[in-house]
Design brief:
The chain is an alpha+beta fold and 302 residues long. Helix content is 18%, strand content 35%. It binds the ligand CC(C)C(=O)/C=C/C(C(=O)O)=C(/O)C(=O)O and fe (ii) ion. The site of the ligand CC(C)C(=O)/C=C/C(C(=O)O)=C(/O)C(=O)O has 13 residues, from strand 11. Keywords: Dioxygenase, Oxidoreductase.
């Protein structure tokens, strides 16, 4: 069993880096960190060096990153994956520098989502200089796509320390790797992709303040404000450039007593199973998975 200690980052390919970066800063509120790497924008949300890396090139998600404890754990994970017939490749030194990690490996999950495990993710000591007062406190969760959500859960729970917190029928599986209700979700879709990337905000007021701001800016609101009955979080989903969906949420449930938690199965046909406030619901737009890692050639960091 491979122990994931946290979610690390999302790496996304964008055809128009300037527009995607402008959106991630001025609209979402992330800080643009000077990564010293032409063609890559590193966006910070919390103490980690970055949580979102936008890489100029083909449009689509490149990888979803998770941390493991250290380099020994990473080597053990590589062996464990290979034992299961999953070929994991080391991320080269330039790739590690770009990701601000000491070491990492990449592999495809059974549905074609590119997953990276990393050790030694860099932190920054200075407070985050948010580009807009959106109230962001941290990278909350990420959500990938798969055609068979139950099979995806079998993969995540048998390979990693991921446990289901709740199901939305066979449409979604919400998984935890620590007491937070979910750090990883899998949504049903025809193929692999990134359904959305979530940032937690400090207060319910931040959700509603951002809602007005986003509407004023002409941003497409995909869903919300509403409240998910699974995590109890108040949410707002909105669409960034090139089909990248962002979510803000506030008030996610923590499952402190792991042993007694029983996952619930919500019926997606029930009005209210997605939004307890009964607002209009829609499935967030996904960014498709890039089949080839088209971010190459990686340029040498200065
Ligand atoms: C939009 C999906 C179907 C949904 O309802 C997701 C639930 C939650 C939650 O309970 O907080 C998420 O944020 C999520 O899985 O992304
Ligand atoms: Fe979410």
């Amino acid at each position: 069993m491979i122990e994931l200690t946290d979610i690390a980052y999302v790496r996304s390919g964008v055809a128009d880096l300037a527009t995607a970066t402008e959106f991630a800063t001025s609209i979402v509120g992330l800080e643009l960190v000077d990564g010293g790497e032409p063609g890559v924008a590193h966006l910070r949300a919390d103490s980690a060096h970055h949580r979102l890396a936008l890489v100029e090139g083909e449009s689509g998600v490149i990888a979803s990153g998770f941390t493991v404890a250290d380099e020994e754990a990473l080597a053990a994970a590589e062996t464990a994956l290979e034992t299961r017939g999953i070929r994991a490749a080391r991320i080269d030194p330039y790739g590690c520098r770009s990701r601000r990690v000491r070491a990492g490996i990449g592999f495809d999950d059974p549905f074609g989502n590119r997953i990276e495990l990393v050790a030694g993710q860099h932190s920054l000591a200075t407070p985050v200089n948010y580009s807009r007062a959106a109230g962001i406190t941290e990278f909350g969760h990420l959500c990938v796509d798969a055609p068979d959500v139950r099979e995806a859960y079998r993969f995540w729970s048998s390979t990693f320390n991921a446990r289901v917190s709740d199901w939305i029928g066979d449409d979604a599986c919400l998984m935890r790797i620590n007491p937070v209700h979910h750090k990883l979700a899998v949504f049903a879709a025809d193929g692999p992709g990134l359904c959305h990337m979530n940032f937690q905000v400090a207060a319910i007021d931040d959700i509603f303040r951002s809602w007005h701001f986003l509407v004023e800016q002409g941003v497409e609101i995909e869903m919300g404000p509403g409240r998910h009955p699974q995590s109890g979080a108040v949410f707002l989903y909105f669409q960034g450039p090139e089909g990248f969906t962002y979510e803000y949420s506030y008030g996610v449930r923590r499952i402190e007593d792991d042993a007694t938690w029983r996952p619930r199965v919500f019926d997606p046909a029930e009005r209210g199973s997605i939004d307890m406030w009964l607002g209009p619901t829609s499935r967030p737009t996904s960014q498709p998975q890039l089949v080839t890692t088209s971010e190459l050639p990686l340029r040498k960091a200065t």
